[in-house]
Design brief:
The chain is mostly helical and 149 residues long. The protein is built from five helices and no strands. It has one domain: nmb1532 protein domain like (Four Helix Bundle (Hemerythrin (Met), subunit A)).
Length: 149
């Protein structure tokens, strides 16, 4: 299904996260040295601090509450929130002690999470929410992106 315009800003952020994972995987495959792990860690933390955490917060404060009104989505939303907690925990672990295993696990978890949101949550959201509600999601995301943090 084609993505509704109200969800496109979130989908673009998902694309950035997936690109981060692809670039990280490629860098680690091409260069097994610790400097590659250190560079990957730096890139992941920068992306997390500048975009991903804010994206998670938006979903939890705006999108997820709208979707939990639908019984069919309550379990999925709960699962996605738990994945946010897990990913945030992996980022905290990465801050304490960068390592290849943690970088790999974080990218795998983030990749799976994003794909689930895109292929399952967003598809169902588009089927259940009105065009006005979906446009409201996009408007609120745009407004939050221009507000000072």
């Amino acid at each position: 299904m084609r993505r509704h315009t109200g969800l496109i800003p979130l989908s673009h952020e998902h694309q950035h996260a997936l690109a981060l994972c692809v670039m990280t995987d490629r860098a680690l495959a091409a260069n097994g040295a610790e400097d590659a792990v250190r560079d990957a860690t730096t890139n992941i933390l920068q992306a997390f601090d500048s975009e991903i955490l804010d994206h998670f917060r938006f979903e939890e404060q705006v999108l997820f509450p709208m979707l939990t009104e639908f019984d069919a989505l309550a379990a999925l939303v709960s699962e996605l929130k738990a994945e946010h907690v897990r990913i945030i925990g992996l980022v905290a672990e990465l801050r304490r002690q960068a390592g290849r295993a943690c970088v790999t696990e974080l990218c795998s978890s983030l990749r799976d999470h994003v794909r689930k949101e895109e292929s399952v949550l967003f598809e169902q959201a588009q089927a259940l929410l009105s065009a006005e509600q979906l446009n409201g999601v996009g408007d609120r995301r745009a407004a939050m992106l221009v507000e000072p943090r």
